[in-house]
Design brief:
The structure is a single chain. This protein has 160 residues and is mostly helical. It has two domains: 85 residues, Multidrug-efflux Transporter Regulator, Chain: A, Domain 2 (Orthogonal Bundle); 59 residues, no CATH class. Helices cover 49% and strands 5% of the residues. The longest helix is centred in the middle third of the chain and has 35 residues. The chain starts with 5 loop residues before the first helix and ends in a 39-residue tail after the last helix. 9% of the residues are buried.
């Protein structure tokens, strides 16, 4: 048994929100989505386990990287719910996310490296760029900003 008093492990919504840097309404939204959980006191007030702070930090960091909340929820569903996640639990989640994060990094690097060329051109053409996409060759590969996708994820229409 821990030396921490039972009431010190649980925090009120305002305390969690302040520590996490989010609004209380964000806590309620995350709870509605199943990203975090709370318990109700005898007076029907919400309380959150202290380790909820780590979950919120994970959600916010993931969101800043553009990871959809559904993907975040799926990852959190794999963590234990009856006790705070351990270092081993977080390491397992990190291994599962590694390839997706590597792919996101590749896409961000491609965007960083190629966006200036596109803006510098000035044509802002949606169909053809005389410098990097003559004759709209990339349009044959499919919709979207094809030139900003890593070559490893681009579809070659000749393979169809």
């Amino acid at each position: 048994m821990s030396d921490i008093p039972a009431d010190a492990v649980w925090l009120r919504p305002g305390q969690i929100a302040q520590r996490a840097g989010v609004a209380v309404s964000t806590l309620h939204y995350y709870e509605q989505l199943g990203l975090i959980t709370s318990r109700r006191t005898a007076g029907n007030h919400r309380e959150y386990r202290r380790d909820t702070l780590r979950l919120i930090a994970f959600v916010r960091a993931s969101q800043r990287l553009g990871i959809p909340l559904a993907t975040i929820k799926s990852a959190l569903d794999d963590l234990p719910h009856d006790h705070p996640p351990t270092k081993r639990d977080w390491a397992r989640l990190a291994r599962l996310w590694r390839s997706d994060l590597d792919d996101r990094i590749d896409r961000l690097v491609a965007l960083r490296d190629n966006l200036a060329n596109c803006i510098a051109c000035g044509c802002l053409s949606l169909t053809a760029c005389p410098y990097t996409n003559p004759g709209d060759a990339l349009g044959k590969e499919g919709p979207g900003a094809r030139g900003l996708e890593p070559a490893s994820t681009r579809h070659d229409p000749a393979e169809s």
